[in-house]
Amino acid sequence: RQPSVDATKMGVGRAIAVLTSGGDAQGMNAAVRATVRVGLYTGAKVFFVHEGYQGLVDGGDNIRPASWESVSMMLQLGGTVIGSARCQDFRTKEGRTKAACNLVKLGITNLCVIGGDGSLTGANQFRSEWGELLADLVKAGKITVDEAKRSSHLNIVGMVGSIDNDFCGTDMTIGTDSALHRIIEVVDAITTTSVSSCVCVLLHQRTFILEVMGRHCGYLALVTALACGADWVFIPEMPPEEHWEEHLCRRLMETRGRGSRLNVIIVAEGAMDRHGKPISSDMVKNLVSKKLGYDTRATILGHVQRGGTPSAFDRILGSRMGVEAVMALLEATPDTPACVVSLSGNMAVRLPLMECVQVTKDVTKAMAEGRFDDAIKLRGKSFENNWSTYRLLAHVHPPEAKSNINIAILNVGAPCAGMNAAVRAAVRIGITQGHHMLAVHDGFEGLACGLVEPLTWASVGGWTGKGGSHLGTKRTLPANLIEEISLSIAKFNIHALIIIGGFEAFVGGLELVTGREKYEELCIPLVVIPATVSNNVPGSDFSIGADTALNTITMTCDRIKQSAAGTKRRVFIVETMGGYCGYLATMAGLSSGADAAYIFEDSFNIHDLEINVEHLVEKMKTTVKRGLILRNEKCNANYTTDFIFNLYSEEGKGVFDCRKNVLGHMQQGGTPSPFDRNFGTKMGAKSVLWLTEKLKECYRHGRIFANTPDSACVLGMRKRALVFQPLAELKEETDFEHRIPKTQWWLKLRPILKILAKYKINLDTSEKASLEHIIKKKGLV
Question: For ATP, which residues are the binding ones (predicted)?
Answer without folding.
Answer: 23, 86-87, 116-119
